[in-house]
Amino acid sequence: MGKILAKPEVCMGCHLCEIWCAVAHSKSKHIIKAFNYEDKKPEPRVRVEEKLPLTFALQCRHCNEPDCVSACISGALTKNPESGAIEHDAEKCVGCYSCVLTCPYGNIFIDHAHKKVIKCDLCAGMETMYCVSKCPNQALVYVED
Amino acid sequence: MGNYDYLIIGNSAGAVGCIEGLRSIDKTGSIWLVSEESNHVYSRALIPYYLAGKITIDKMFYRPAEFYDRAGVTLITGQKAEALDPEKQEVVLTGGERLGYGKLLLATGGKPIYPPIAGLDKQNIFSFHSFKDLLGIEKKLASARHAVVLGGGVIGLMAAEVLKKKGLKVSVVELGGRVLAPVIDETGSMLVEKTFKNAGVDIYLNNTIQEVHGEESVEGVTLRDGTNIPCDLLIVGVGVIPRVELAESSGIEINRGIVVNKKMQTSAPNVYACGDCASNFNFVTGQAQPLPLWPNAYTGGRIAAFNMAGIEREYTVGTSMNAMHFFDLNLINAGLNVTGETTGDFRVLQKLDANKDIYLKFVLNNKGVIQGYILIGQINRAGIFLNLMRKKIDVRSFEQELLSGDFGYANLPDELRWQLLREDVILGVV
């Protein structure tokens, strides 16, 4: 499978990847409805790392030997043998945070409202990878293997 | 007698890690699995979540119902492996059936410790370990009013929290002077004890159960200091010890757990071990010790699988580590637990905000490499610290940033950051 790669030198730190990731994973998938009217503030699964002037965005790397999957006590995290994606089943997740303990990138995020975790799903089932397509300066790109 | 390429004794995280590892490289070799329990593979770590009502019973199962079929594994459940002959490469089951193997994995797990206290065999007394415990405790929850939990470690405290949330009066009895002593330091224990006290859980330290009262069922306990606590439910959550009988009786080397090298091989040829039954290599101490933790069991099983199938791999990143949460307090620890009583050439970086229940502590060796850490109340992105520890990174040039509360790769020096993220970023575009 391919991978989303970051280009730190052209990242402007605008955080639009976070905004659109949150929208993409909201109920309405509509930016105004998602932020203004949904019960729960939409949360991103990508994070802009910042130490100005340095900025760059990272999300789950979908590792080949994923520590999060080894650590997951509920079986909620699995590596899809066909696509290679690390998938998270929110129904099974109990919020033990063993994946937070082990993810070497710190890219599994705590959803405090539900006491579960959220992570990048490569916008599975959506028409586009939002963090990539909405980046105004192409600082995130999807590269096939 | 059957003869199988791979034979696995045990049916939990280590076994699943092994099966998934084997099938990623050997699609056709025959795999048989012997399980003493009759249940489909379940996660004992989920017991508190089930009892708390966070998940339904079907979510107790660690893999889908069709997991073994899909992986082409033949199951023998409800039977115990009684004997092992490493020379003949045979395992004998209770009924006398003999199973021959090419490679064997011992994933026999641990068993709950029952301290030598008379009366722990009465009804309404459970450990917090098996499906049987889960069903037994669940049945009692409707009528139970007051629970005593023996043990103030990870298991005991998880049990105490869920019982409190179910509306019981809960008393925790801990032999040591503070809770969670093996995994966190004095300051950490203080924050955890405060959390439990605020939630209305009584904690008795420096104490143990002297006497268990009741005819058939437990009706109360008397502690060593004379305190009487009436109770109708008693949970023994002191810890687990490796189950080594099968290995030990066959002459395999034991040192608390089944001794394995980094390839998860035991002292007997073609016999591997992993998980709670084994003494695993701890990369921080350089010593082998039981590390009865879910990630170590799964990964140990997976590493064993590669070696069993002829691909050499070593397990060199295991250490003590826990993700825990009690009421609204999140905690993570990993590596060495350096307390006020620890001696050694360590340097400690720490930050405490007792009002916000935030405590961060890092222990560095004289080369600036993280040897252990405790994160309380602020656990986000904790795995980055584990990665720095595993990669033996000298953190001295940015050490104060470890305590910043939102530490990330941006806080690393350029060269180190891009070296660690070399497969994740594209540089040199401008």
Explain this structure to me?
The complex is a heterodimer of chains A (145) and B (430). Chain A has five helices and eight strands, in the order E-H-H-E-E-H-E-E-H-E-E-H-E. With 145 residues, chain A is of the alpha+beta class. Chain A folds into two domains: 1-60 and 128-145, no CATH class; 63-119, Alpha-Beta Plaits (2-Layer Sandwich). In chain A, the strands form four sheets. In chain A, strands 1-8 form a two-stranded antiparallel ribbon. Chain B contains ten helices and 26 strands. Chain B has three domains: 2-110 and 240-308, FAD/NAD(P)-binding domain; 114-236, FAD/NAD(P)-binding domain, CATH 3.50.50.60; 328-420, FAD/NAD-linked reductase, C-terminal dimerisation domain (Enolase-like, domain 1), CATH 3.30.390.30. In chain B, 22% of the residues lie in helices and 28% in strands. In chain B, strands 1, 2, 3, 4, 5, 6 and 19 form a seven-stranded mixed β-sheet that branches. In chain B, strands 8-15-9-10-11 form a five-stranded parallel β-sheet. A five-stranded antiparallel β-sheet of chain B has the order 22-23-26-25-24. Chain B starts with a strand and ends in a 10-residue tail after the last helix. With 430 residues, chain B is α/β, with parallel strands linked by helices. Chains A and B meet through strand 1, strand 2, strand 3, helix 3 and helix 4 of A and helix 8, strand 22, strand 23 and helix 9 of B.
